[in-house]
Design goal:
Strands 8, 12, 13, 16, 17, 18, 19, 20 and 21 form a nine-stranded mixed sheet that branches. Strands 1-2-3-5-4 form a five-stranded mixed beta barrel. A three-stranded antiparallel sheet has the order 9-11-10, with no helix packed on it. Strand 19 and strand 20 form a beta hairpin. With 510 residues, it is an alpha+beta fold. It folds into two domains: 158 residues, OB fold (Dihydrolipoamide Acetyltransferase, E2P) (Beta Barrel), CATH 2.40.50.140; 229 residues, Bira Bifunctional Protein, Domain 2 (BirA Bifunctional Protein, domain 2). The protein contains 15 helices and 21 strands.
Length: 510
């Protein structure tokens, strides 16, 4: 049984009082002729058409959540908020009766969903308002919305209404956050627009959207620790996918030349401002293309999305003005690391040699790290924070890119790029490896490169190798964290601000 606070007990008593008066606080049906925005727009249009004359009376039935109530004797002003916006209500005893006005003031609380019918007019202070002729409860809120803050109305009065400002509480109770912070609703509308624009861009260029398994018998396509589950009937362990890659590339073997998927990946790793164990990924694979063509498509796609969603290619993010106008800067990884660390990774072909060089920088990586992980350490500690404007970092060491094709004449370097913006990675792409013999040796090499208990090691996928042996066309592949793009285009520092329900550590209250 729930334990109710004193305020909740008062509201529960109001529910019983309403029922005793023959009023159902949770009726089955609701009516609405306009949203708040539609009602205001329609009235303003009628005003414009009427010119100097008074516009014809416009009837409306509205519904929404009570966000402010201000009783003033025999009249009460209130505001309701719906999915579109907010509108003022004007209730007067002369119109609805003193008993009904008293019922409203006594039993209706902030957070309640109500329905109000009447006609639209403009007050002396200029605010478009619903003059209420009838109202009813649609859903009684038992719990008060969190916190409170003051806000001035158009007539200079100060009203007090619910708010929510604690970041931890907002993430844990996203439903309350959305209810009281309109700007948060706008973030998620923008996120939806970003996803819609990504699909439009790829669909218009002949890419086919597909769906691949979330539960996989072998995880692969990235170096990450998976979540493990068990299928009882099959008596088989399965993994939540860490990437779509190996399944999407199987489709290239089947002559689907341009494929993409946008959906959830799962990595059993740490939580940070840019990582969540469950995240939205976009991957595409493009037959007969290489990483240079994918690079051009990437900058075109992000520019397209920014223009479609924001109407501009210049975006302010955490105080930086980012310019997504193509072409973006290109920087070879080896050169970038040399400029920021003074270390030429080509001069250190072993992990031991590179570790000794890194010790001299004053930053200590894990002495047990592989050469690939040491290079990742250099990238994250030294180079990544300097990459503010959109930048393609390209030509990566082979030992951290098991699925990418080597550069002609340089077997230790692969045709891979990552795009960095605002100091963090946005996307990753390769000229994909399509030689099944080379791929098999890479899988074996990756298995040796990691300790036996290391859950990030890349397992051998025999079925994927079987598919490759049928022949895979040369292709370019791409993966991007959609949540990170949403962060950039909504100016949010933390990934949890663009996830409706981010993963958070359990608390005693949970």
């Amino acid at each position: 049984m729930a334990e109710y606070t004193s305020l909740e007990k008062i509201r529960l008593a109001k529910i019983e009082a309403l029922r005793a008066a023959g009023i159902e606080p949770f009726p089955h049906r609701a009516e609405r002729t306009h949203t708040s925005t539609q009602a205001i727009a329609s009235f303003e249009k009628a005003e414009k058409e009427a010119g100097q004359a008074a516009p014809a009376e416009m009837k409306a039935t509205l519904a929404g959540r009570l966000r402010a109530v201000r009783p003033m004797g025999k009249v009460t002003f209130a505001h309701i908020e719906d999915g579109d916006g907010r509108i003022q209500l004007f209730l007067r005893a002369n119109d609805i009766g003193e008993d009904k006005l008293e019922l409203f003031n006594r039993t209706f609380d902030l957070g309640d969903f109500i329905q109000a019918a009447g006609f639209i007019f403009r007050t002396r202070t200029g605010e478009v308002t619903l003059h209420v002729q009838d109202f009813r409860m649609l859903s009684k809120a038992v719990s008060p919305l969190p916190a409170a803050k003051d806000e001035a109305t158009s007539d200079g009065q100060v009203i007090r209404h619910a708010a929510l400002e604690d970041p931890e509480l907002r993430a844990r109770q996203r439903y309350a956050d959305l209810a009281v912070n309109p700007e948060v609703r706008q973030v998620f509308r923008r996120r939806a627009a970003i996803i819609r624009a990504l699909r439009q861009f790829l669909d218009e260029r002949g890419f086919l959207e597909v769906e691949t398994p979330i539960l996989q018998p072998i995880y692969g396509g990235a170096a990450a620790k998976p979540f493990v589950t068990h299928h009882n009937q099959l008596k088989q362990d399965l993994y939540l996918r860490i990437s779509f890659e190996l399944y999407l590339k199987r489709l290239l073997v089947g002559n689907l030349e341009r494929v993409y998927e946008m959906g959830r990946d799962f990595r059993n790793e740490g939580v940070s401002y840019k990582h969540n164990p469950e995240f939205t990924q976009l991957e595409f694979y493009w037959a007969y293309a290489d990483y240079l063509q994918v690079m051009e498509l990437t900058e075109q796609m992000v520019a397209y999305v920014a223009e479609k969603v924001l109407g501009t290619l210049r975006v302010t993010y955490q105080g930086h003005e980012l310019d997504f106008t193509p072409p973006w800067r290109r920087l070879e990884m080896r050169q970038g690391l040399k400029e920021t660390t003074g270390i030429d990774i080509a001069a250190h072909p072993t992990a031991e040699s590179l570790f000794e060089a890194l010790k001299k920088t004053g930053k200590m990586p894990d002495p047990r790290a592989t050469r690939g992980k040491l290079i990742d350490f250099m990238l994250s500690e030294f180079l990544e924070p300097t990459l503010i404007q959109p930048t393609f970092l390209y030509n990566y060491p082979r030992d951290i890119s098991p699925l990418a094709k080597s550069k002609p004449g340089d077997p230790l370097t692969v045709e891979r790029f990552e795009a960095y913006v605002a100091g963090f990675e946005l996307c990753n792409a390769f000229t994909e490896l399509n030689d099944p013999l080379d791929q098999e040796s890479r899988f074996l090499e990756m298995g040796r490169d990691y300790a036996a208990e290391d859950e990030e090691k890349h397992p051998m996928d025999d079925d994927y190798l079987r598919a490759m042996r049928y022949g895979m066309p040369p292709n370019g592949g791409f993966g991007m964290g959609v949540d990170r793009l949403a962060m950039l285009l909504t100016d949010k520092h933390s990934i949890r601000d663009v996830l409706l329900f981010p993963h958070l550590r359990e608390t005693k209250e949970n």
